Amino acid sequence: LQHNIVSGINYKLSSKNPKNLLALNKLVKKSTANSIIATKPLSQRPGYQPNSSLKSLNLRKEYLLNPNTHTLSHLISKEKYEHLKVKAQDAISEGKIFCVSTNTNGSSAVRRALIKRGWIERFSTSDDKGNLHERLVRAPDAEALILSNFLKSRPVKFLWTDNSLNWSLIHPSTIVNKFPSTGISLWTKTGLLKFLQTQQWTNENGKSHVKFPRTFSIYNLDDLNYFCSEYRLTACVNMLKKFYYAILEDQNTTITEDGMVDIRSIDFAVERLCEYLGTYEHAYIDFWNLSVVSEVDWDNFLSDYYNFAHNGKKIRNTEKYELDKLITSIKACLDKIKIHWPEVQFEGTENLWLIKPSAQSCGRGIVIMKTLTEIRNHCLKRQPVIVQKYIERPLLIYNTKFDIRQWFVVTNTFPLKIYMYGKCYLRFCSKEYSLQNLHESVHLSNNSIQWRYEHIKKHNCKLPKQNMWDSDQFQEYLKNRGDLDKWNRIIIPGIRRGIIGAMLACQEGMSDRRNSFNLYGADFLLTEEFTPLLIEINSCPCMRNTTDVTARLCPMVLDDTVQVMTSGKPPSNTGHYQLIYDQFMGPEIPTRVFAEGNRDMMVSGSRAHLHTIPARLKELYAEPRLFQNYKKRNHWEDRSLKYDNLCWYKSKKPCLWIIASIDPKFGCAIPKYPGEPTPQEHILYVTKTIGRPEITKWMDTYRDRISRHLAKQDPQADHKRESIETKVHVLTPTS
């Protein structure tokens, strides 16, 4: 134990009898408080008498004091003792006192780095009265104990801990390896996602941009419904991609007479994507929702999608489509989707999704799913969760998936200052990559997961036995395949921009403490084009020596981290760290400028004269207009390429669109009818075009009003129009 030399107590602990540890702990505290440095053995001390109070503690014999125990004078000389005293005084005057929590992540390497730079450790004390047997560590040497005893009443200048802190008791000048909490769960998966979704407000051109897979936070049923709509849209894109690539490869084997998938599902997918494009570009901002697709329609489409994409079923051309025009239409649609949805290039066609717990680490609780039903059922049982699109086309090494762990340290938050470490390491999966096998050993590269499968025989002898490479080995691999330029041209700049962009987005939720810093570990996944995608950021990355690679790199990282924080501001030596971002905040306006009244901050103006507005504008804005004419984009033209056979859903044109078309003031064209129809014929034509019984019944109810309105025979046309609009807004697409 730490106090056995100074106190002259000789005892040992037995793991078989821990019930006396509480009494022993009291004895140690009592003897430590006295801490008499003797010059003779206890048995030769004047007036020595055996301590009879020990018997009342009911300790085993091996716990009792040994009268023949040698004290401090038998271990170090008096000259050495005086030298240590001077050394402690120098540490106090220079402010080189540090404290490292016993079981802290990477504590040994941090301790060695500080001692090497002339710092002295003050051992932390604990008032925990529980069983300390499992917390015991090897006692330091006598010199370290004596130095710590000299510094026990002095505040530390460097604190390294993973425990929660009472910041009101910590001096502002103390360097701490964490930032105070602001009450925002910043580094949980949900907290990070919340800030990354607002990165467009903090991005700096050319310096920061975070690329990350599509991610959704599921807290309630509304979030789940929104994800379901995204899943369906993704299925439409994947359906077209799968069909397009299959046709280019071999048309005869893709479309057969006995196929189980109706080719009209391809038309369904194209129509849904055209609606998405129109909504994304605000083409229908003045119209009602164009899509009236029931849940049954979506279920039928997803069933065809699963059969085609997952089960390999063939397409049946039931409508005798002209395939050349169909392929041209699909290609035009996919090209436009890529503009607004760039992730579609590397997301694949299987529609796989990762479901993660919102506040867990080390890969715990992560599952991979592909069907909407099982994802919905899983989310309903385990809210809140994170649902992230699985990257189905990652960069592979020897047909094995991997990711990259990159360290960086933030030394200041306002202004933001970031150092990125010059080395990183790769974490491999244990089994060969496959989209049919969704086991964690194939897809989750976390070291805490893959160590369970190290015994599995590698499918390639060139893969590392411990599933880990450092960045030097990865660069050698890129050099051998002729892609070494990708490291400095694509990978490192992409990682740098991702880290800067993420920290700028999260800066608002971070606290401003001048002498705090934090070491982070960012996980990136590379696509087939070597583009880094940010997966997550760990605020307390594992720095333990779990493999040969981490045993070599982690002590280097911690040593350079200590160097950055203890070598002044700005640091004179940063080791392998590189300053990648130093934010410019601009000059601050002194408070006295406002206090002394030296600046007039008031803005004055004059009243606008409304009579100067042109008469034409008065007419336009005299009363609000609910709808304005808007030039419709040509997405429907792109969809069909003026090819009637592609309009499978023409008979199910959206009912709200048709109803809105009745009044020209709504800004829509009336459906074409041969000749000059009467109002009654027009209503029948519109009803037949809709083709839905429930909508037909609704239209029959208001047939007379609509007829009178079209014929301009209703003197209260505006009143009737408002009534119709009210009913239309109440009507839901699913009904």
Structural description of this entry:
It is a single chain. By secondary structure, the chain is an alpha/beta fold. The protein has five domains: 1-75, no CATH class; 78-125 and 140-177, no CATH class; 189-213 and 391-575, ATP-grasp fold, B domain (D-amino Acid Aminotransferase, Chain A, domain 1, 2-Layer Sandwich), CATH 3.30.470; 216-345, no CATH class; 653-730, no CATH class. It has 26 helices and 16 strands. The strands form four sheets. Strands 11, 12, 13, 14, 15 and 16 form a six-stranded antiparallel beta sheet that branches. A four-stranded parallel beta sheet has the order 2-1-3-4. Strand 11 and strand 12 (416-428) form a beta hairpin. Helix 5 packs across helix 18 (548-566), helix 8 packs across helix 11 and helix 23 packs across helix 25 (703-710). The chain is elongated. It starts with a helix and ends in a 5-residue tail after the last helix. The relative contact order is 0.09. Residues 1-19, 30-42, 51-65, 127-138, 285-290, 620-673, 690-694 and 719-735 have low confidence and may be disordered. GO terms for molecular function: ATP binding; protein-glycine ligase activity, initiating. Its main location: cytoplasm.
